[in-house]
Amino acid sequence: MEYISGAAGALVLILVLSSILRTLVVPRGLYSALVFRLWWSLRRLLRLTAVGGGYRAMDRAQTWLAPLMLIGMLTCWLAGALLGFGLLLYTLSPLSWTTAFREAGSSLFTLGFAGGARLKLSVIDFVAAATGPVLIALQIAYLPTLYAAYNRRELEVTLLQSRAGEPAWGPEILARQWLVDTETALPALYRAWERLAADMGESHSTYPILLTFRSPRPHRSWLVGLVAVMDAAAVQLALAPRLAPPEARLVLRAGFTALRDIARALRIPFDADPAPDATIRLTFAEFDAAAAMLESAGFQAERPPKEAWPHFQGWRVNYEAVAYELCRRCDAVPALWTGPRDFPGGPIPPARPADRRPAEGRPELPPATG
């Protein structure tokens, strides 16, 4: 029995150390079973509090996912360390179960109320005593990194609101720029989101818990914003390839590379080299309706929608499946062209001011469709 307890304690400590290193230390998107099972469990638990309430109820519930994840990870690691050291002390000493775990807890949490004359076990006591403060210090140092990445992300998401509406939608970005003659600002927008996509691909695959951090407002989402910018670039390249800036291609490449990096960290399967004519879930009818909206806003297309569709399909096939799965897992706002969700309710079109007036005689934006 003592040998089994000792082996079990050593295994538990190895698993805890591996999870800590994978999550907090190693600068690479390594899979941690503890973190993702905790995410899965807490997400399902919070969803129970929003059953039948639609997206706003789901958003309110899932707002608590990030802080609960942080507390849950620390609790699981400390509990695992307590279990591991308790089993080792029980194996290597004549202590009873309760006394061994009391000794381990005293050392791990530096309480200092337990002790004994067993000098040969002082190494285990000292290691346990160092584990608790080091683990808490790593968690504390972890938070500034998370919030720095979160602030960089949310700054661009907030700036996108005036260009894409809330929730963001790719054709809406193009329509608003042509409606007010600011289409020359699109290259700068694509450059900003190219850099942000690279940043998010690195930070969100290294620290997947960032996926649980929601935007301050319910209808904003970094994931929906990225898909919207990529869709805008793909639509522009498909409908007006000669007028589309080169930055449109660059943001598409950076965007689907970032999404795939995150998918690899989450072990989401995807086709790394899809055929350009592979089927996508977005329909031609939705694309055609968006093209008609763009035409009414003043966008000058070089190709008719039917001719542009295969080009748009060839771009979107690179990121649609991964984007839809991430939007579903993150319970992102159900914007247009972002796929289904696990909660009731259809897609939400971008909100527009009720008193919008035509710019220089141009028509107002028609209702969003798709």
From TrEMBL:
Parts of the chain that traverse the membrane: 70-92, 126-150, 222-240
Residue span of region Disordered: 341-370
Keywords: Membrane, Transmembrane, Transmembrane helix
Composition bias type Basic and acidic residues, residue spans: 353-363
Superkingdom classification of source: Bacteria
Protein name as annotated: Two pore domain potassium channel family protein
Organism of provenance: Streptomyces alanosinicus
